[in-house]
Amino acid sequence: MLLDQMGSYDLDVGIGNEVSQTLRDLSLTPFQVVENYVRLVHPWLPIIKSPRLTTQLETTQRDQPLTLKAETAALLLFIHLATQSSSNERAHNSDLQRKVYKQCQSMFTLLQAFRRSALETRQCGVLLTTYQLGAGFISDAYVTLSTASGLVHVHQPCPFARESYKDERDDEARRVWWAVFLLDRLIAQSHWKKRSYPLIIEQPPWWSELPSEGSLTAAPIRITDIGTCHCEYFCREIQAAYLAAQTLEYRSDHDRKEGFEPDLSKLSTQLTTLLNVLFETAPGSWRPSCGAIAMIIAATLDLHLSVSGLSTNNTPAQLAYPMETLATTIRINTEIVTNSLDDNDDNEFQDRLPITGVIANYRTALAICHRAEVNQALTTEERFQLVTMTRALQRGRLRWGLADVYLQEISGMLDVW
Protein backbone atom coordinates (compact mmCIF):
# COMPACT_ATOMS: atom_id res chain seq x y z
CA MET A 1 0.00 0.00 0.00
CA LEU A 2 2.75 2.43 0.94
CA LEU A 3 4.82 1.66 -2.15
CA ASP A 4 1.82 2.23 -4.43
CA GLN A 5 1.31 5.72 -3.01
CA MET A 6 4.91 6.88 -2.90
CA GLY A 7 4.43 9.27 -5.80
CA SER A 8 1.62 11.16 -4.08
CA TYR A 9 2.65 11.72 -0.48
CA ASP A 10 5.43 12.83 1.79
CA LEU A 11 7.13 9.87 3.49
CA ASP A 12 7.13 11.46 6.95
CA VAL A 13 3.44 12.36 6.76
CA GLY A 14 2.40 9.05 5.23
CA ILE A 15 4.17 6.78 7.71
CA GLY A 16 3.25 9.10 10.59
CA ASN A 17 -0.43 8.89 9.66
CA GLU A 18 -0.34 5.13 9.29
CA VAL A 19 1.47 4.52 12.58
CA SER A 20 -0.87 6.90 14.42
CA GLN A 21 -3.93 5.09 13.08
CA THR A 22 -2.53 1.66 13.90
CA LEU A 23 -1.69 2.66 17.47
CA ARG A 24 -5.23 4.00 17.88
CA ASP A 25 -6.60 0.69 16.60
CA LEU A 26 -4.40 -1.07 19.17
CA SER A 27 -5.51 1.35 21.93
CA LEU A 28 -1.87 2.17 22.61
CA THR A 29 -0.03 5.42 23.13
CA PRO A 30 3.55 5.86 21.93
CA PHE A 31 4.68 6.03 25.55
CA GLN A 32 3.06 2.67 26.31
CA VAL A 33 4.92 1.18 23.35
CA VAL A 34 8.23 2.40 24.79
CA GLU A 35 7.31 1.09 28.25
CA ASN A 36 6.60 -2.35 26.79
CA TYR A 37 9.97 -2.32 25.05
CA VAL A 38 11.77 -1.51 28.30
CA ARG A 39 9.97 -4.37 30.05
CA LEU A 40 10.07 -7.09 27.39
CA VAL A 41 12.92 -6.51 24.94
CA HIS A 42 15.48 -4.14 26.45
CA PRO A 43 16.71 -6.61 29.13
CA TRP A 44 18.19 -8.88 26.45
CA LEU A 45 18.40 -6.60 23.41
CA PRO A 46 19.14 -3.02 24.59
CA ILE A 47 19.51 -1.40 21.17
CA ILE A 48 17.41 1.71 21.86
CA LYS A 49 18.06 4.42 24.42
CA SER A 50 14.50 4.75 25.70
CA PRO A 51 15.07 8.16 27.38
CA ARG A 52 16.15 9.66 24.06
CA LEU A 53 13.10 8.23 22.29
CA THR A 54 10.81 9.36 25.10
CA THR A 55 12.21 12.89 24.84
CA GLN A 56 11.42 12.93 21.12
CA LEU A 57 7.88 11.79 21.83
CA GLU A 58 7.36 14.39 24.55
CA THR A 59 8.09 17.18 22.09
CA THR A 60 5.35 15.93 19.75
CA GLN A 61 2.86 14.34 22.15
CA ARG A 62 0.21 16.95 21.37
CA ASP A 63 0.48 16.38 17.65
CA GLN A 64 -2.04 14.07 16.00
CA PRO A 65 -1.04 12.49 13.75
CA LEU A 66 2.54 12.09 14.91
CA THR A 67 4.88 14.75 13.55
CA LEU A 68 7.95 12.55 13.75
CA LYS A 69 10.35 11.61 11.02
CA ALA A 70 9.23 8.54 9.11
CA GLU A 71 11.96 6.33 10.56
CA THR A 72 11.13 7.34 14.15
CA ALA A 73 7.39 6.83 13.72
CA ALA A 74 8.01 3.47 12.06
CA LEU A 75 10.30 2.46 14.92
CA LEU A 76 7.32 2.63 17.29
CA LEU A 77 5.45 0.07 15.20
CA PHE A 78 8.48 -2.23 14.99
CA ILE A 79 8.96 -1.97 18.75
CA HIS A 80 5.33 -2.96 19.28
CA LEU A 81 5.71 -5.95 16.96
CA ALA A 82 8.85 -7.16 18.75
CA THR A 83 7.05 -7.09 22.11
CA GLN A 84 4.15 -9.23 20.94
CA SER A 85 3.68 -12.95 21.29
CA SER A 86 4.38 -14.70 17.99
CA SER A 87 2.51 -17.87 18.99
CA ASN A 88 -0.26 -18.94 16.63
CA GLU A 89 -2.37 -20.09 19.58
CA ARG A 90 -2.48 -16.80 21.46
CA ALA A 91 -5.78 -14.95 21.29
CA HIS A 92 -4.15 -11.62 20.55
CA ASN A 93 -2.28 -13.04 17.55
CA SER A 94 -5.16 -11.65 15.52
CA ASP A 95 -5.79 -10.23 12.09
CA LEU A 96 -4.63 -6.88 13.45
CA GLN A 97 -1.27 -8.30 14.50
CA ARG A 98 -0.80 -9.91 11.09
CA LYS A 99 -1.64 -6.53 9.59
CA VAL A 100 1.04 -4.89 11.76
CA TYR A 101 3.56 -7.51 10.61
CA LYS A 102 2.80 -6.78 6.95
CA GLN A 103 2.99 -3.04 7.63
CA CYS A 104 6.42 -3.46 9.18
CA GLN A 105 7.65 -5.47 6.21
CA SER A 106 6.46 -2.75 3.81
CA MET A 107 7.88 0.05 5.93
CA PHE A 108 11.25 -1.65 6.18
CA THR A 109 11.36 -1.80 2.38
CA LEU A 110 10.59 1.93 2.23
CA LEU A 111 13.16 2.82 4.86
CA GLN A 112 15.82 0.82 3.01
CA ALA A 113 15.06 2.81 -0.13
CA PHE A 114 14.68 6.32 1.29
CA ARG A 115 16.25 6.38 4.79
CA ARG A 116 19.15 3.99 4.42
CA SER A 117 21.51 6.00 6.58
CA ALA A 118 19.10 6.44 9.50
CA LEU A 119 19.99 4.59 12.69
CA GLU A 120 16.30 3.83 13.18
CA THR A 121 16.24 1.87 9.91
CA ARG A 122 18.86 -0.52 11.30
CA GLN A 123 17.00 -0.75 14.59
CA CYS A 124 13.80 -1.58 12.71
CA GLY A 125 15.61 -4.38 10.88
CA VAL A 126 16.85 -5.88 14.15
CA LEU A 127 13.39 -5.70 15.74
CA LEU A 128 11.73 -7.27 12.69
CA THR A 129 14.32 -10.06 12.76
CA THR A 130 13.56 -10.62 16.45
CA TYR A 131 9.87 -11.13 15.75
CA GLN A 132 10.50 -13.40 12.75
CA LEU A 133 12.95 -15.57 14.68
CA GLY A 134 10.55 -15.84 17.59
CA ALA A 135 7.73 -16.82 15.24
CA GLY A 136 9.81 -19.57 13.67
CA PHE A 137 10.15 -17.76 10.33
CA ILE A 138 13.83 -18.67 10.17
CA SER A 139 14.36 -18.02 6.45
CA ASP A 140 12.61 -14.64 6.65
CA ALA A 141 14.64 -13.72 9.73
CA TYR A 142 17.87 -14.57 7.90
CA VAL A 143 16.92 -12.41 4.90
CA THR A 144 15.93 -9.46 7.10
CA LEU A 145 19.08 -9.71 9.19
CA SER A 146 21.19 -9.96 6.03
CA THR A 147 19.75 -6.63 4.92
CA ALA A 148 20.24 -5.09 8.36
CA SER A 149 23.83 -6.32 8.51
CA GLY A 150 24.50 -4.71 5.12
CA LEU A 151 23.20 -1.39 6.42
CA VAL A 152 25.29 -1.77 9.57
CA HIS A 153 28.37 -2.44 7.46
CA VAL A 154 27.85 0.63 5.26
CA HIS A 155 26.84 3.04 8.02
CA GLN A 156 29.25 2.21 10.82
CA PRO A 157 30.02 4.90 13.40
CA CYS A 158 33.34 6.63 13.03
CA PRO A 159 36.33 5.27 14.95
CA PHE A 160 36.53 6.68 18.43
CA ALA A 161 38.83 6.95 21.39
CA ARG A 162 38.36 4.05 23.78
CA GLU A 163 37.51 6.39 26.64
CA SER A 164 34.92 8.39 24.70
CA TYR A 165 31.28 7.30 24.52
CA LYS A 166 29.68 10.73 24.51
CA ASP A 167 27.56 10.41 21.38
CA GLU A 168 24.41 8.50 22.35
CA ARG A 169 23.50 7.72 18.76
CA ASP A 170 26.97 6.28 18.12
CA ASP A 171 26.53 4.20 21.25
CA GLU A 172 23.18 2.94 19.96
CA ALA A 173 24.75 2.20 16.56
CA ARG A 174 27.36 0.01 18.24
CA ARG A 175 24.64 -1.80 20.16
CA VAL A 176 22.86 -2.48 16.87
CA TRP A 177 26.08 -4.02 15.50
CA TRP A 178 26.35 -6.24 18.58
CA ALA A 179 22.66 -7.17 18.23
CA VAL A 180 23.18 -8.23 14.60
CA PHE A 181 26.09 -10.38 15.73
CA LEU A 182 23.97 -11.93 18.49
CA LEU A 183 20.88 -12.59 16.35
CA ASP A 184 23.07 -14.02 13.60
CA ARG A 185 24.31 -16.70 16.01
CA LEU A 186 20.80 -17.33 17.36
CA ILE A 187 19.47 -17.93 13.84
CA ALA A 188 22.30 -20.37 13.22
CA GLN A 189 21.54 -22.14 16.51
CA SER A 190 17.79 -22.20 15.99
CA HIS A 191 17.66 -25.29 13.77
CA TRP A 192 20.13 -28.10 14.15
CA LYS A 193 19.23 -29.84 10.90
CA LYS A 194 19.73 -26.77 8.70
CA ARG A 195 23.19 -25.44 7.94
CA SER A 196 22.77 -21.71 8.44
CA TYR A 197 26.12 -20.11 7.82
CA PRO A 198 26.76 -17.03 9.97
CA LEU A 199 26.71 -13.71 8.16
CA ILE A 200 30.13 -12.24 7.54
CA ILE A 201 30.49 -8.75 9.02
CA GLU A 202 33.72 -6.83 8.58
CA GLN A 203 35.45 -6.12 11.86
CA PRO A 204 34.48 -2.60 12.98
CA PRO A 205 36.97 0.06 14.15
CA TRP A 206 36.07 -0.69 17.77
CA TRP A 207 36.77 -4.44 17.42
CA SER A 208 39.29 -4.31 20.27
CA GLU A 209 36.43 -3.42 22.60
CA LEU A 210 34.64 -6.72 21.95
CA PRO A 211 35.15 -9.82 24.10
CA SER A 212 38.01 -12.15 23.32
CA GLU A 213 38.98 -15.62 24.44
CA GLY A 214 40.97 -14.12 27.29
CA SER A 215 38.07 -12.09 28.65
CA LEU A 216 35.75 -14.82 29.88
CA THR A 217 35.82 -13.47 33.42
CA ALA A 218 35.31 -9.84 32.48
CA ALA A 219 32.93 -7.77 30.38
CA PRO A 220 35.21 -5.50 28.34
CA ILE A 221 32.45 -3.98 26.20
CA ARG A 222 32.30 -0.31 27.06
CA ILE A 223 28.71 0.90 27.23
CA THR A 224 27.83 4.17 28.91
CA ASP A 225 25.43 2.60 31.40
CA ILE A 226 27.44 -0.58 31.91
CA GLY A 227 26.64 -0.43 35.62
CA THR A 228 23.07 -1.60 35.02
CA CYS A 229 22.52 -5.32 35.20
CA HIS A 230 20.64 -5.42 31.90
CA CYS A 231 23.58 -4.15 29.88
CA GLU A 232 25.99 -6.29 31.85
CA TYR A 233 24.06 -9.40 30.88
CA PHE A 234 23.89 -8.14 27.29
CA CYS A 235 27.70 -8.04 27.30
CA ARG A 236 27.68 -11.60 28.57
CA GLU A 237 25.37 -12.62 25.74
CA ILE A 238 27.89 -11.27 23.25
CA GLN A 239 30.63 -13.27 24.96
CA ALA A 240 28.41 -16.34 24.75
CA ALA A 241 27.80 -15.62 21.07
CA TYR A 242 31.54 -15.73 20.39
CA LEU A 243 31.80 -19.23 21.83
CA ALA A 244 28.61 -20.26 20.05
CA ALA A 245 30.19 -19.11 16.78
CA GLN A 246 33.25 -21.28 17.47
CA THR A 247 30.92 -24.23 18.06
CA LEU A 248 29.21 -23.55 14.74
CA GLU A 249 32.58 -23.52 13.00
CA TYR A 250 33.42 -26.81 14.69
CA ARG A 251 30.13 -28.28 13.44
CA SER A 252 30.81 -27.26 9.85
CA ASP A 253 34.29 -28.81 9.78
CA HIS A 254 33.70 -32.27 8.33
CA ASP A 255 37.39 -33.04 7.82
CA ARG A 256 38.68 -34.15 11.20
CA LYS A 257 42.31 -33.13 11.17
CA GLU A 258 45.14 -33.81 13.55
CA GLY A 259 44.68 -31.81 16.74
CA PHE A 260 40.93 -32.41 16.75
CA GLU A 261 40.79 -33.69 20.33
CA PRO A 262 42.71 -30.77 21.91
CA ASP A 263 40.46 -28.30 20.05
CA LEU A 264 37.40 -30.09 21.37
CA SER A 265 38.74 -30.08 24.90
CA LYS A 266 39.64 -26.38 24.72
CA LEU A 267 36.24 -25.36 23.42
CA SER A 268 34.48 -27.50 26.02
CA THR A 269 36.55 -25.90 28.78
CA GLN A 270 35.76 -22.38 27.55
CA LEU A 271 32.04 -23.13 27.47
CA THR A 272 32.13 -24.58 30.99
CA THR A 273 34.16 -21.65 32.31
CA LEU A 274 31.77 -19.01 31.00
CA LEU A 275 28.75 -20.97 32.23
CA ASN A 276 30.26 -21.05 35.73
CA VAL A 277 30.99 -17.31 35.57
CA LEU A 278 27.42 -16.60 34.50
CA PHE A 279 26.01 -18.66 37.34
CA GLU A 280 28.12 -16.73 39.82
CA THR A 281 27.02 -13.43 38.29
CA ALA A 282 23.31 -14.02 37.74
CA PRO A 283 21.11 -14.44 40.82
CA GLY A 284 18.69 -17.36 40.80
CA SER A 285 15.73 -15.19 39.83
CA TRP A 286 17.63 -13.94 36.78
CA ARG A 287 18.77 -17.29 35.39
CA PRO A 288 15.60 -18.14 33.42
CA SER A 289 15.80 -14.75 31.69
CA CYS A 290 19.57 -14.70 31.12
CA GLY A 291 19.97 -15.40 27.42
CA ALA A 292 23.73 -15.84 27.80
CA ILE A 293 23.25 -18.88 30.05
CA ALA A 294 20.77 -20.37 27.58
CA MET A 295 23.10 -19.74 24.64
CA ILE A 296 26.04 -21.44 26.38
CA ILE A 297 23.82 -24.42 27.27
CA ALA A 298 22.69 -24.68 23.64
CA ALA A 299 26.28 -24.38 22.36
CA THR A 300 27.49 -27.09 24.76
CA LEU A 301 24.74 -29.45 23.67
CA ASP A 302 25.40 -28.59 20.01
CA LEU A 303 29.01 -29.56 20.53
CA HIS A 304 27.94 -32.91 21.95
CA LEU A 305 25.53 -33.59 19.09
CA SER A 306 28.24 -32.68 16.57
CA VAL A 307 30.72 -35.12 18.06
CA SER A 308 28.09 -37.83 18.44
CA GLY A 309 27.28 -37.67 14.77
CA LEU A 310 30.89 -38.45 13.83
CA SER A 311 31.13 -41.94 15.30
CA THR A 312 32.86 -44.77 13.47
CA ASN A 313 32.23 -48.49 13.64
CA ASN A 314 35.29 -48.97 15.82
CA THR A 315 35.34 -45.97 18.14
CA PRO A 316 32.19 -44.04 19.02
CA ALA A 317 33.20 -40.41 18.76
CA GLN A 318 30.83 -39.39 21.53
CA LEU A 319 33.17 -41.14 23.98
CA ALA A 320 35.76 -38.46 23.21
CA TYR A 321 33.49 -35.83 24.66
CA PRO A 322 33.17 -35.89 28.47
CA MET A 323 29.80 -37.46 29.18
CA GLU A 324 29.88 -35.83 32.61
CA THR A 325 29.82 -32.42 30.90
CA LEU A 326 26.75 -33.40 28.92
CA ALA A 327 24.96 -34.76 32.00
CA THR A 328 25.89 -31.68 34.04
CA THR A 329 24.66 -29.31 31.33
CA ILE A 330 21.33 -31.13 31.10
CA ARG A 331 20.94 -31.04 34.88
CA ILE A 332 21.73 -27.32 35.01
CA ASN A 333 19.10 -26.48 32.43
CA THR A 334 16.59 -28.82 34.07
CA GLU A 335 17.13 -27.03 37.38
CA ILE A 336 16.66 -23.61 35.78
CA VAL A 337 13.53 -24.71 33.93
CA THR A 338 12.02 -26.55 36.91
CA ASN A 339 12.37 -23.48 39.12
CA SER A 340 10.76 -21.27 36.49
CA LEU A 341 7.90 -23.74 35.94
CA ASP A 342 7.17 -23.69 39.67
CA ASP A 343 6.12 -20.09 39.18
CA ASN A 344 2.41 -20.25 38.31
CA ASP A 345 2.33 -16.74 36.85
CA ASP A 346 2.17 -17.41 33.10
CA ASN A 347 2.40 -13.71 32.27
CA GLU A 348 5.63 -13.31 34.24
CA PHE A 349 7.05 -16.46 32.65
CA GLN A 350 6.15 -15.08 29.22
CA ASP A 351 7.85 -11.77 29.96
CA ARG A 352 11.06 -13.34 31.28
CA LEU A 353 11.74 -16.13 28.76
CA PRO A 354 14.25 -15.12 26.05
CA ILE A 355 14.12 -16.76 22.64
CA THR A 356 17.48 -18.30 23.51
CA GLY A 357 15.77 -20.21 26.31
CA VAL A 358 13.39 -21.85 23.85
CA ILE A 359 16.35 -22.94 21.70
CA ALA A 360 18.24 -24.30 24.73
CA ASN A 361 15.21 -26.29 25.94
CA TYR A 362 14.78 -27.84 22.50
CA ARG A 363 18.47 -28.74 22.34
CA THR A 364 18.25 -30.28 25.81
CA ALA A 365 15.36 -32.51 24.73
CA LEU A 366 17.35 -33.64 21.67
CA ALA A 367 20.42 -34.42 23.78
CA ILE A 368 18.37 -36.47 26.27
CA CYS A 369 16.84 -38.54 23.48
CA HIS A 370 20.20 -39.01 21.79
CA ARG A 371 21.72 -40.27 25.02
CA ALA A 372 18.78 -42.66 25.43
CA GLU A 373 19.39 -44.00 21.90
CA VAL A 374 23.06 -44.60 22.69
CA ASN A 375 22.21 -46.42 25.94
CA GLN A 376 19.09 -48.09 24.52
CA ALA A 377 17.20 -46.98 27.62
CA LEU A 378 15.73 -43.91 29.27
CA THR A 379 16.38 -43.58 32.99
CA THR A 380 13.83 -42.20 35.44
CA GLU A 381 15.87 -39.00 35.73
CA GLU A 382 16.06 -38.61 31.96
CA ARG A 383 12.32 -39.16 31.62
CA PHE A 384 11.71 -36.39 34.17
CA GLN A 385 14.13 -34.13 32.30
CA LEU A 386 12.40 -34.79 28.97
CA VAL A 387 8.96 -34.12 30.44
CA THR A 388 10.30 -30.91 31.99
CA MET A 389 11.65 -29.66 28.66
CA THR A 390 8.35 -30.49 26.96
CA ARG A 391 6.43 -28.54 29.61
CA ALA A 392 8.82 -25.63 29.21
CA LEU A 393 8.24 -25.53 25.46
CA GLN A 394 4.48 -25.71 25.99
CA ARG A 395 4.67 -22.66 28.24
CA GLY A 396 7.24 -21.05 25.98
CA ARG A 397 4.73 -20.82 23.18
CA LEU A 398 2.89 -18.24 25.28
CA ARG A 399 5.56 -15.89 23.93
CA TRP A 400 7.37 -17.52 21.02
CA GLY A 401 5.89 -19.28 17.99
CA LEU A 402 9.22 -21.06 17.52
CA ALA A 403 8.29 -23.20 20.54
CA ASP A 404 5.32 -24.55 18.55
CA VAL A 405 7.69 -25.62 15.77
CA TYR A 406 9.92 -27.42 18.26
CA LEU A 407 6.99 -29.13 20.00
CA GLN A 408 5.90 -30.63 16.69
CA GLU A 409 9.41 -32.00 16.16
CA ILE A 410 9.68 -33.66 19.57
CA SER A 411 6.03 -34.69 19.95
CA GLY A 412 6.86 -38.35 19.42
CA MET A 413 9.85 -38.53 21.75
CA LEU A 414 7.91 -39.35 24.90
CA ASP A 415 5.87 -41.97 23.07
CA VAL A 416 9.04 -43.73 21.90
CA TRP A 417 10.58 -43.85 25.37
Automatic annotation (TrEMBL):
One of its GO terms (molecular function) is zinc ion binding. It holds the Pfam family Fungal_trans. Residues 35-188 form the Xylanolytic transcriptional activator regulatory domain. It is found in: Nucleus. GO terms for biological process: DNA-templated transcription. It comes from the Eukaryota. Its main location: nucleus. GO terms for cellular component: nucleus. Keywords: Metal-binding, Nucleus, Transcription, Transcription regulation. This is Xylanolytic transcriptional activator regulatory domain-containing protein.
